[in-house]
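Q: Fold this one first, please.
A: Sequence and structure below.
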Amino acid sequence: MRWLTGLFLLMMFSYQNSFAALSSWVQGNVFVQGEAFELVVEAEEDGDLRIPEMDGLKILSRSTQSQTSIINGSISKVHRWIFTILPNQAGVLRIPPFQLGNEQTEEIQLEIADRKSHQMALPIDIAARVEPRQVYPQQQLVLEIRLERGVLVENESLTPPDLPNIPVKLLNQQNEQQVRNGRQLNVTTLRYAIFPQESGDLVIPALTYQGEAILASKGQSLFQGLNRHLGAKTQRVVLQTPSQQVRVIPVPRDAQGWWLPAQEMVLQEQWDPNPPVFRVGNSVSRQVRLRATGLLGEQLPELSMSTSTALKIYSDSAEVTTSNDNHWVTGERSQSFALVPTKPGKMKLPAIEINWWNLQTNQPQVARLPERTIEILPAALAPTQLQPLDTTVTTSTAEHLTTEEMNSDSRLWQSISAALLAL
């Protein structure tokens, strides 16, 4: 009997722990006495959800939704309980935790406005920040815009940064949903790379956000999308970010050559054939590639090689590209050279050096391809032209040779027969 009891308790414990953590949130961010809102409880599995008592709040109805997704062979399940709740009094009200198995939601506190004195305030917020606040000319800085909406919004737009003669590049745009203080938010984050060109104070003007917020009325659900709000009222929303100020300090005095403030710089070369073989009259290809993190491709200098009397150099048009990893831009310049030796002997290919400013150490640095000594071989000799052997035999000559061969064979057999008769 004790064994059965222990097995039963073990089964109960396993069942309770099979539930994933619960989460819950309310739809919207403005709550008014006498106006219903929705509360959503979400788990990975269905089960016996325990509903707490809620003072000042009345559950008008509830429904459930289940969804199963298969992505790359992985199965995920979501089960939701959706409650329509009516506040019947004003003030700060609390929604106690819901429980499923041994998991429970967090408590949610709501401020319920009095219906008579309520004025609509939409839960939409926009913020901006820059990093770093102090940069050199042409150094990358990042402007981040964060937009949070606690209601559904249509026809949204955001003006991009307007900075004449200053390069601006959108790094990425990320959209996600978050739950904060029991409220579900749609959050959009945009990141721009900006490259100031001159020292001094740079002011990034305010960005303007516009949209049409959908105002849910009694009996309507924001959780299920816009299809149920074709007749709902909307409210025009216009918000602006605060302007941002950045200090652009002068180029350091000990900086040399082309001014290139970067996080990292790499200078590479590739030969074809590899290793290269230099011979008079034969072409050898050399590709030189410069890659810099924190700079646009257009900011990188031209790459060149010097011509000598023993070596002619021809260059193709450079390939210039810019990519990003959502945090930094990476500029790249690739230049191909054709090297054609004109005189045998040894010679030196000068080093290729690019001066740049290392932002991580705040020190000057040099990206370098070292000097190379090459040996140019003489031009290859052309193959010797041999006179072909004439093997043509005329018909009359061939017939003459055949007749002589037959006569010679006849005399040989006659001699052999005479010798045998003498024996």
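Q: Good. Now the second chain.
A: Here it is, same layout.
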Amino acid sequence: MRNLEKILEGMNDKKILVIGDLMLDKFVYGDVERISAEAPIPILKIARKEYNPGGAGNTANNVASLNGKAIVVGIVGNDNEGKILLEEFSKRNISIDGIFIDETRPTVQKTRVVSGTRQMMRFDYETDQDINNILMEKINNYLSEKIQDFEAIIVSDYAKGTITEKIAKNLIDLSLKYDKTIVVDTKPRHAGFYKNITLLKPNLKEAMEISGEEDLNLIGRKLIERFNSNILITRGKEGMSLFLKNGNYIEIPTKARDVFDVSGAGDTVLATVGLALSANASLEDAVYLANIAGGLVVERKGVVSATQDDIKQYLKIPIMPKVWGEEHWLVNDSYCGKRLILKQGYRCSLHYHKEKDETFYVAKGKVLLELNERKITMNPGDSQRIRPMDVHRFSGLEDSEIIEISTHHDEEDSYRIELSGKFDGA
């Protein structure tokens, strides 16, 4: 069984290098009240504007939202849009140490015009020429100096000129030399840059273009053979297909319930996979979490990011802080399962249930169980059933971990005799 909660916890504060084409997403919101007399076009009365990091910047934003530490490498122009983008990164605690100024090009900007819930049009300001040799050298020097600081590398290559073949080769060589996970999402015309990486993540249309095939199984096998990499193909409402180098094939159904806006979902998937792999998740588990995260963001309007809380809520793994420690929900389906973290010197309330029937298993530590008139010292491997109307309380003789399995019950079915708190004699 996947320990998804452990993976999520392991993602905290992981340093993730995100390199690629940085963009500024600008949203102009307003209302259309009339049609222009000059031409048969709507007139938008502007109400507000919003800015968000886009492109590789949105991938970095997703890493930060998932409690990772994102360090961005890329370029911006020497213009007002570049300044705004740097400010947006700083607001989100995303490191901009690896961002360089290109005096020869504008910051890539995508402006979306929205009326109500409808996007009316989009304006793009960009160039796709490769960066010059001076900037290439600066980026490669930065990568060579900092590579050992990162726990995983995410490449978001929109083929706008930041990632050149020379930079890609240096990045992959460094990742192999220092055994770094590297996951890549690239446009087809740059796909040839990325051999011998951990994971390549095209969507189905891109995968068909890169492979020249239409059959999904043939696409997967051909891409593995060409790139010597694991392949994740995202297929929209059909979910995802993971082709592993060892020959295994895994189908992951979609987790989206109501699709509202697909903007940025691929960046969310990429960020989640890279961050989960840095937390020692298997590829299957990393993709499983990414599928959930991607499904959550498409249910919302605009380019948004998923959080660990979003994923935990979806998985129904809420973490409830308690006076005596923490209560982690593991399952809430045909039965209830919790992991209880009990601190040394603390105890839960003395209480009973009228309907709840539960069994406790001590996984770690040392626990004193008061059960009706008895006192039982429990060690790892010990278990005890608590029937309805049994008066009971747990005390932590050491920092302990208890697994609770129970019947379904209402939270109101707890009748407390004494409150939880510290106790003497620990």
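Q: Anything worth noting on the second one?
A: Residues 197 and 229 are 5 Å apart (CA to CA).
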